[in-house]
Amino acid sequence: MAQPEKEGNAVSKEQGPVLQVRGLGKFYGEACPHCINSTGPAWESNICPACGTIVACAEISFALMAGSVLGVVGESGSGKSTLVQCLYFDLAPSTGEAFLGSYVGGKKNIFAASAQEKRLMRNKLMGMVYQNPQQGLNLDFSAGGNIAEKLLMAGCFHVGRIRARAGALLEKTEVPLKRLDHLPRFFSGGMQQRVQIAKALANNPGLVFLDEVTTGLDVSVQAKVLDLIRSLQRELALTIIAVSHDLGVIRLLTDYTLVMKNGRIVEQGLTDQILSDPQHPYTQLLVSSLL
Amino acid sequence: MAQRTRYKRGYNFAFLDESSKKELRRAMLKAVAIPGYQVPFASRELPLAQGWGTGGLQLTMALIGPEDILKVIDQGSDDVVNAVNIRKLLVQTTGVATTEDTQRATLIQTRHRIPEEPLCSWQILVFQVPYPEPLRLVEPSEAKTREMHAEADYSRLWVHLYEDIVRWGEITIGAQYPVMVNGRYLMDPSPIPRWDIPRLHMADHLNLFGAGREKRIYAVPPYTKVEPLEFEDYPFRVEDFRGKSCAACGSTSTFLDELLEETTGKRTYTCSDTSYCAKKRAARD
Questions:
Q1: Cα distance between residue A136 and residue A192, in whole Å
Q2: Measured between CB atoms, which of A119, A146, A159 is closest to B233?
Q3: Residue A69: helix, strand or coil by DSSP?
Q4: Looking at beta carbons, which residues of chain B come within 8 Å of A141?
Q5: Choosing among B139, B155, B234, which should be mutated to test the A contact, i.e. which has the most A CBs within 10 A?
Q6: Catalytic hit among B36, B53, B55, B210
Q7: CA nearest neighbour of A175 among A198, A208, A148, A149
Q8: Coarse DSSP helix, strand, coil percentages of chain B, rounded to the nearest 5 percent
Q9: Nearest CB to A142: which of B155, B156, B163?
Q10: Are B55 and B82 in contact, with CB atoms under 8 Å apart?
Q11: If contacts are CB pairs under 8 Å, which of residues 68-97 in chain A contact chain B?
Q12: Exposed (0-12), middle (13-18) or buried (19+): which is A4, by Cβ within 10 Å?
């Protein structure tokens, strides 16, 4: 039986990147040969003029090392959520490949895996925190049940151990332990989000996706959730991809940043560097409009 | 071909036409080849309402031959109206011999029980199934449950069991306890009591399950692993009859039915398998 308490999936730095993405793209419509060349930031559009295909994202390539936090920033419709949803198998990408260090030693394209393998990867190697807790939580299960779902999928069939682990996670995410068996339906937004974070971390995933986690929360709760993520990241050496349209969040959380516009990466590099010396006009605009 | 004189004129042997039987046999072969997998089939109209055992009946009709010895039981009893009617229909349309003795029967159709006496490799047990989908409890969509089976994604039922334990201190499913078959497919064993579940595991005989209304056939072939879902610290338990015995035959090792005498309020217990109980009484007297 798997013991999620001990079994860490984090890959050590010597083993290469945790995640490597090459040429990822997602098209809605019948893609034509002009799609790539006639969309993007230069055209200020992600709709192909020739065939009307929507190029949600294209030519996305990057690598992510263990223990680092990657930020993906861009305006609405820039393809940042599409990117993360493709990597978490919520969407099937149209082009490109990705390699996960903890899956067949990073030698097999994860998009070519079977549905069953993908589900296993999602459950054992990845964690996801959605903007809307209703997407990440089953509101008909108790908070403990939601965390148990992840642990059960990873093969832990011991009620006592599941409850101990769920309790420890809720404690870590600052949810009162007495709410373990309550339905998250009746929790506040911030507390739902913290339960979602606890669920995402249940199996010590090697890679965690945060999709606009603080959007929709009020400012004081935002700060608390960000603090929590930051301390968990340090404590557990999590590898994170954080998507946000908020440069403040990106500045607070991330080491590296991808700036996306019209489905393409327009700039990438160290977060500090991008914020202090933006190169691309769009990034300059973003930074200058930072409150 | 069977001799036409032995059963009612105007009907094909065992009521169904030969091509329907062929389809049923094909579905059964597939079900045996993939233990626990629900094979769809075109459920036929029968002179019996759906929900009264048409799934089991169609399997029996497709399997039965003139030399078979038939036993039909309902909740362990040979004399309940459902069993009697199904037996009458089969006898009228096949002319086969019938028996109440489990050990003599070659073909047994049952509703919600497995006979107490162990079955042998030459016997076939046919179950009547009301709801074949064990995941229906947690997922209303058939398309989704099929996908869940394909990917062996049973976590939601597991969470349901976990929440049961959290809320009630134990798993509250009585009859119809979900089982894993051959380590792959989650299966609804039909509403047999938990008592009967261990007797599906590595059994000598073939178990066939037919759901007429839901149009599904599945099987547990001989010598197949059948494991009830259980947690390491909350193991599966069968019904507890400690300190109770059958009022008629004195048995302490059978599944017992509880009878409440309304005037005195006294509780008594009798074997649910009536033919086994009668056999024991005959041996004793």
A1: 10
A2: A159
A3: strand
A4: 159, 163
A5: B155
A6: B36
A7: A198
A8: 30, 20, 50
A9: B163
A10: no
A11: none
A12: buried
Partners of B125 in the beta sheet?
Answer: B108, B207
Q: What's the pTM value of the predicted model, to 2 decimals?
A: 0.85
State pLDDT tens for residues B184-242. Answer: 999 999 999 999 999 999 999 999 999 999 999 999 999 999 999 999 999 999 999 99
The Cα B141–Cα B36 span in angstroms is 19
Nearest to B165 by CA among A184, A169, A160, A100: A160
CA distance B131 to B120: 27
User: Is residue A271 within 8 Å of A54, Cβ to Cβ?
Assistant: no
- CA atoms lying within 13 Å on the CB side of residue A117: 11
Q: Cβ contact (<8 Å) for A115 and B151?
A: yes
- A128 CB-contact burial (10 Å; exposed 0-12 / middle 13-18 / buried 19+): buried
- C-alpha A114/C-alpha A290 separation (Å) is 43
Q: Does the annotation count B120 as an active-site position? A: no
Cα gap B182→B34, rounded to integer Å: 9
What strand order describes the sheet that includes A264-270? A126-129, A207-211, A240-244, A69-74, A256-261, A264-270
Q: What residue ranges do the domains of chain B occupy?
A: 18-134+176-228, 240-285
A150, A125 Cβ separation under 8 angstroms: no
**Given an 8 Å threshold on Cβ–Cβ distance, is B166 in contact with A157?**
no
Compare all CA atoms of chain B with the CA of A151 and give the residue at the minimum distance: B155
Q: Is B271 an active-site residue? A: yes
pLDDT digits (tens, 9 = 90+) for A127-179: 999 989 999 999 989 999 999 999 998 888 999 999 999 999 999 888 999 99
> B151: nearest CA in chain A?
A116
The interface predicted TM-score of the complex, written ipTM, equals 0.81
Task: Decide yes or no: CATH 1.10.287.1080 for domain B18-134+176-228.
Answer: no
The edge-to-edge listing of strands for the beta sheet with B107-111 is: B39-40, B216-220, B206-211, B124-128, B107-111, B69-74, B97-98
Structure tokens at B229: 């879902």
